[in-house]
Specification:
By secondary structure, this protein is an alpha/beta fold. It has ten helices and ten strands. A six-stranded mixed beta sheet has the order 6-7-8-3-9-10, sandwiched between helices. Strands 2-1-4-5 form a four-stranded antiparallel beta sheet, covered by helices on one side. A hairpin with a 6-residue loop joins strand 9 and strand 10. It binds adenosine-5'-diphosphate (ADP) and magnesium ion (MG). It comes from Streptomyces inusitatus.
């Protein structure tokens, strides 16, 4: 069976600086994969290579391969804009378009693509907001600015915006780190629901969160400061937390790390 994502030998640079080196892993469809590891080990960089956002940074380039459903995302005939539609992203700080209404925020990606029938837009916006567990809180204020929502609501709005264009994969870079504990649990519940339809990769610095939401966990580390980040191991989440194969993983998850 085709893996949803199949990465081999991926190395990423910022100019001359090699941020991550020789990463290989696969991701199954309709699963949640968590990336954990110390700050600066390249989790965000690696995540952004999975939808070709890394190359938007000046000097950003990659070597190696990323296959999505067997298609090479870095193939010479591949449109990076299309890749970012198929592989959506949710960021650490909720970033709704501040001057746009709640409705227009969710519709923004669809309008950009033109990939909908005019009379479907209202339905797709409602469906996306429902899927993001936000509909009941905003249905009476769809024309109010998205920036008027609480942080947790804004993050769910960003998730609604990301899923409105029906991506295959959703990348989330510490999506709860700016949120209070109750909003965090709401997002975690949402992730568990969304994995029925999407393949999710989440970076988190919160070990309990990785244990709660993910099926598989990847531990990244730096051999030394200034060295590129590497994938130490990836395995079933239960195994990573109960009985990891590598000592460095155990040291990190048990808080013995540096
Ligand atoms: N925009 C950038 N320009 C140059 N170097 C960067 C940039 N972003 C990250 N880096 C470097 O890449 C490495 C990995 O960073 P990052 O992917 O942000 O790690 P993490 O998300 O695990 O904290 C670090 O050495 C960091 O300094
Ligand atoms: Mg990061």
């Amino acid at each position: 069976m085709a893996k949803r994502i199949d990465v081999s030998g991926l190395t990423a640079y910022y100019g001359a600086h090699k941020a991550i080196e020789d990463i290989s892993m696969t991701v199954e469809p309709r699963s949640v994969t968590a990336f954990i590891g110390p700050s600066g080990c390249g989790k965000s960089t690696f995540l952004r290579t999975l939808n070709r956002m890394h190359e938007v940074t000046p000097g950003g380039r990659v070597e190696g391969k990323v296959l999505l459903d067997d298609e090479d995302l870095y193939g010479s005939d591949v449109d990076p804009v299309g890749v970012r539609r198929t592989v959506g992203m949710v960021f650490q700080r909720p970033n709704p378009f501040p001057t746009m209404s709640i409705f227009d925020n969710v519709a923004a990606g669809l309008r950009l693509n033109g990939s909908y029938k005019k009379n479907q837009l209202t339905d797709i916006v409602e469906k996306s907001l429902r899927s993001a567990n936000l509909w009941n809180e905003v249905k009476d204020r769809l024309n109010k600015p998205g920036s008027g929502l609480s942080g947790g609501q804004q993050q769910r709005l960003c998730i609604a915006r990301a899923i409105a264009v029906e991506p295959e994969v959703l990348l989330m870079d510490e999506p709860c780190s700016a949120l209070d504990p109750i909003s965090t649990l709401a997002i975690e519940d949402l992730i568990s629901e969304l994995k029925e339809r999407f393949t999710i990769v989440i970076v988190t610095h919160n070990m309990q969160q990785a244990a709660r939401v993910s099926d598989r966990t990847a531990f990244f580390n730096l051999a030394a400061v200034g060295q590129p980040g590497r994938l130490v191991e990836i395995d079933e989440t239960e195994r990573i937390f109960a009985n990891p194969s590598v000592q460095a993983t155990e040291d990190y998850i048990s808080g013995r790390f540096g």
